[in-house]
């Protein structure tokens, strides 16, 4: 028998951000033996950094608003590879999930009539793109993620959810039939490694923006769930689709919400020109994020960038006045003073497109069940494995996520996964126990690090990985550059496999956590690189100089990266919503 | 300030019989970086140095620490704000047990937070849409809900140092008032009766260290004053 201590739960949720906490809340209320395992105290999760809001047709700003309009915007924003059944589910269930958050206490900003305040965000329209700009993003000033995450944590406290805080999930444990039956996890405080047994394992581990040198993401966003799933042999979907947010603060990378443009701010080049009028004559600064980010890069490449090096543009907010800034964007005022040394009430903020969001991830259905594909291209459910939030690819975001849709994704699909798991547990599920060798194989890499005696340093390898991704897989991509990137990553993989963890101590060993995170960054980077190289078209956030057009004949598909063979296959996009007509692909203009 | 002298608190329970201060020379290349950047540079020199960090933009509350004698968040504190005579002394938040180096055991702090029942309580069935709240009612939550639980305030509070088991502390009380002030919360009297004893609220001596250190510019002392007023009004 394994000498590891084991902990047994009905469901284990890995990740304490918005989607994990929402799933946990559902399960805690059901009385199932559930635990949230999070490498940081839950309110330190990256959801806390979301600013602008949660997009949802609650019909507060416009009483005639319709979730179908939101669904249309989402599908169009995703450049038509969002799954329409999933977008339909998210947009139609959304209001219920948002009202629940309000009932839990989320301190939304308010309209004069007492309803939730909504602001305009990019890519939003009324009447299926025909009725002008909508204001559909529900906001708590510019701290919506903070308010949402704290509210969910608080309600989990209220419902006595079990928390394993500052525990790190190392790898999934699979049984002989290939079902996921738990994970290996480490208590960071003591260094103890345990075997967590569970009938349902939910990967709610968030994004992996730290594969890039410049990102709005928290330092903890290292794609841990993606790495775990890939090492367990499961495929990843649409990993080439990375969103570059138009307004990361130049130099620091910290996010400045799209809500700034929603409230009336706009981008200018070195001549003071509002250049988005040329690229997106109708939506201007509120076009899709991919469109705005590309336009900014074009301005910079054509010599109209700002600053000494001409390598950024400006976000102008001073015309909004101190009152609007103080009321609606107080966090932005703080952040730009701290990180750009600029008071936005007086001067524009230097900004540049910055890696922000992973549209791809673990393919799932709308219940959060992970999906894999057999040799003949048929979908199969992976028993015992679930994913939700940024780690999952349902896919509601397709090739480009709309602002405010990530928070909605978290709560709608966290909730959906929780409800489904509750039902499955009630119906009774039993899987084979993991054998000794199943556990051994999940212990392999932590053992490898613990036994490392020499080799290259972790921070240096990480910096190299981030440079490769930044150089070869940025806003604009092309084959030659990507081939070089893929080659360099292949070499880097070998070097990481021989890298050195100098500190083998047990108590709160953050160096060990960073070593384990580096393995995950490597997995995410490789999946991204190969998917980006193989998708020979431009769609949404994936823009290629060598294939500048969208190719619906060959690529109106999800990509599916298989780790064992490092092959990229295709998977059908769902075009069959249940209650509305299919939104057929159209030329995407704003 | 190119070669900054940094003195940092070290303690590894597995190898050290007592804590000690370790000296580092950090080359900041003349830039006014954040204290967190300095910690990252030091960690490259000694990977064993342990500290918490996450968002690196002052919203997650992971990296509260004591920098040249004052609590704050390392990620939003530029060297120019704290460094004197080219010297920076970094210690863990005071008053809480140290797990390792800059990492403290936050258990007591969280326990006091949980004690105030930090969640909205409303015994009426929720409507089909949101509960309504006027902008004026919502304004009352500003300056309260923004707390990030970094513990800079409570660990700067002498009353919390003396009675961490009994005095809720500024962070917990700020959140307590956040729910007392919420027009949607109906548990006011239970909340107040939970705080009536001589320690929970009344150990606050108005020292205002909490206000001086809060990295979000919040004012727990004012919130505590409001709770006192409510308790007194409730008692008469």
TrEMBL record, chain A:
PROSITE patterns according to UniProt: FRD_SDH_FAD_BINDING
BP-aspect Gene Ontology terms: anaerobic respiration; electron transport chain; tricarboxylic acid cycle
Catalytic activity, EC: 1.3.5.1
Binding site for substrate: 245, 257, 356, 401
Enzymatic reactions: a quinone + succinate = fumarate + a quinol
Domain of life (superkingdom): Bacteria
Cofactor, free-text remark: Flavinylated by SdhE, about 5% flavinylation occurs in the absence of SdhE.
Keywords: Cell inner membrane, Cell membrane, Electron transport, FAD, Flavoprotein, Membrane, Oxidoreductase, Transport, Tricarboxylic acid cycle
Record-given protein name: Succinate dehydrogenase flavoprotein subunit
UniProtKB/TrEMBL annotation, chain B:
GO molecular function: 2 iron, 2 sulfur cluster binding; 3 iron, 4 sulfur cluster binding; 4 iron, 4 sulfur cluster binding; electron transfer activity; metal ion binding; succinate dehydrogenase (quinone) activity
Residue ranges annotated for the 4Fe-4S ferredoxin-type domain, each copy included: 137-167
Pathway field: Carbohydrate metabolism; tricarboxylic acid cycle; fumarate from succinate (bacterial route): step 1/1
Stretches that traverse the bilayer: none
Any one biological process term the GO annotation gives: tricarboxylic acid cycle
Keyword match Nucleotide-binding: no
E.C. code: 1.3.5.1
Reactions accelerated catalytically: a quinone + succinate = fumarate + a quinol
Names of the cofactor(s): [4Fe-4S] cluster; [2Fe-2S] cluster; [3Fe-4S] cluster
Keywords: 2Fe-2S, 3Fe-4S, 4Fe-4S, Electron transport, Iron, Iron-sulfur, Metal-binding, Oxidoreductase, Transport, Tricarboxylic acid cycle
Gene3D superfamilies: 3.10.20.30, Alpha-helical ferredoxin
Pfam families named among the record's database cross-references: Fer2_3 (PF13085), Fer4_17 (PF13534)
The keyword Nucleotide-binding is annotated on this UniProt entry: no
Function: Two distinct, membrane-bound, FAD-containing enzymes are responsible for the catalysis of fumarate and succinate interconversion; the fumarate reductase is used in anaerobic growth, and the succinate dehydrogenase is used in aerobic growth.
Family indicated by similarity: Belongs to the succinate dehydrogenase/fumarate reductase iron-sulfur protein family.
Protein name: Succinate dehydrogenase iron-sulfur subunit
Organism: Vreelandella maris
